[in-house]
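--- STAGE predict ---
source: upstream dedup step, 1 unique chain passed
mode: sequence only
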Amino acid sequence: QDAIRPHPELVYTIFVILAQPIERVNEARMVEISVGIKAGSSRAPVDLKLPTGGYQRVEPDPDDAARLRVWVDLMAPQDATPEELAETDFRSPSAMIDSSDEVIIELSHKADPLCAEDGKPLPKGHTNGKLPIALAEELAYALRQIVHEHIEDKHLSTAYASASETARTASGDCTEHAVLLAAVLRARGIPSRVCHGLVYVEQGGSAIDGQVHVDASGNVDPAGGRLTGQYGWHMWTQALIAGKWIDLDATLHLPFTVGHVLVGTSSMADKDAHNNHMQMAALIGNLEITVHDVSHSFER
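--- STAGE serialize ---
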């Protein structure tokens, strides 16, 4: 049944094919993988660099100096750096993440009833950014759910809309989900940033070239080809809560999975809103991934 779960929207229909699918990825707590550059990739960077952040930890691969070992652990969010904690761009509106827009603010307050329904009502008149940790986490998860449900027209044809545009059109792909979630988080005083990288999917794509089948509207058609395990290019969001970055993916039917590989992050401030994709562009079609371990135990 895991193989027919709802799939996230993808930025590109170019995949990193695995030797075999990851078992029950939606139920996993931790995955350990190694990531490297394909042999003969002329356009790829000489030295592969991936960040530690959110639920991801990166170290040199002990078995291959040219590769990186990556752990994604849902019980071990990484601490933000002092520079990240002090960065005002994670809190401020920008042209893309226009969190001061009236529609964004209105949408962000739709999370309040969800928090109350879960038995964690937000205090009336609370100051944004000053909530207790448990309530800040509850609000962040509720905002993710609001964005997931608000964007009803999920497709690949929107050209990188701002948060306020997406709030009004209720349409878009993973970029619009990521940007809108970052905006509603900031509107409620939770610092946020946008992530770009890879997400694990299981669907019928060509086992030869990694291309999934799409229809005339650009929507992914999971019926074509055989079932494979693969990573596709994607965007999501991180929220800064209690000094740690918490990963949130508004395209999914659950908050997050271990099937994500973080390549880079951006505040989407006006000065660097479009520069954050340069590293991702250099890696497209040039990566290979090996899965070493998957844990489904949530016991400490």
